[in-house]
Amino acid sequence: MSVERRRQVIEPEHPRLSIARQCELVSISRSGLCHRPAGETPLNLALMRLIDAQFLETPWVHPYLLRDLVVDKPDQVWCADLTHIPMRRGFLYLVAIDRSL
User: Does pTM surpass 0.85?
Assistant: First the structure.
């Protein structure tokens, strides 16, 4: 059963079951009952496309700052990266964190 269909079976005025219990029974969160994702604004989508296009032309924008560093002890170097992945209905965000061993 789709999430939308599960939302439809909730009866706010049910005489014996609270909304919280009904949500639990149909396996949706209570916040998921009312919340509808807003999606991205046209301006934000346009900006993300511009950033993507620029990165594809110049993927070397940030210099490698660890080039001459000898990594010889644990937790000396950490690295994090954040990116967005275009999807049909917006974006997924991916965060990766790595540390030296």
Answer: no
